[in-house]
Hints:
single chain; two-stranded parallel sheet
Amino acid sequence: MIVDDYHKLDLKADDRHKFLTSLAAFAGHVILIADTIVLSTRDLFHPNGLPRGPIPFTPYSILPFGHVKRDDLVQKWMRLNAEADPDSTAYAKQLANIHKTINTLIGRNFVPAYAIYLLAVLQAFEAAMQVNTNASTHG
């Protein structure tokens, strides 16, 4: 069971816990999507940090890409093109151009370093579109 926007659920804390317990009993696995992990864990624990009920959970969060992961993503994207020759000068120039653009966009805080934004930039390059590095926030 997937619950999106869990943080917007308009229930009291005890009712949220009952809701989650019921979902866990019904579905077995429950995925909560919320703005922050604090919002989803507050209903699973007492203020003293002890488990409140039979709801085991593992928190996950989406993290921004660092330089290494961005580099890996760009290289994997470019290798998807069957005609790309990693040993060619054109490939190296395109790779450098993509890295420069992505680093500029992230460095100026136009685009967060999350995969969805990086993929949009890569798609723009693939479509032979010019990426405007002076665009507003989130491109």
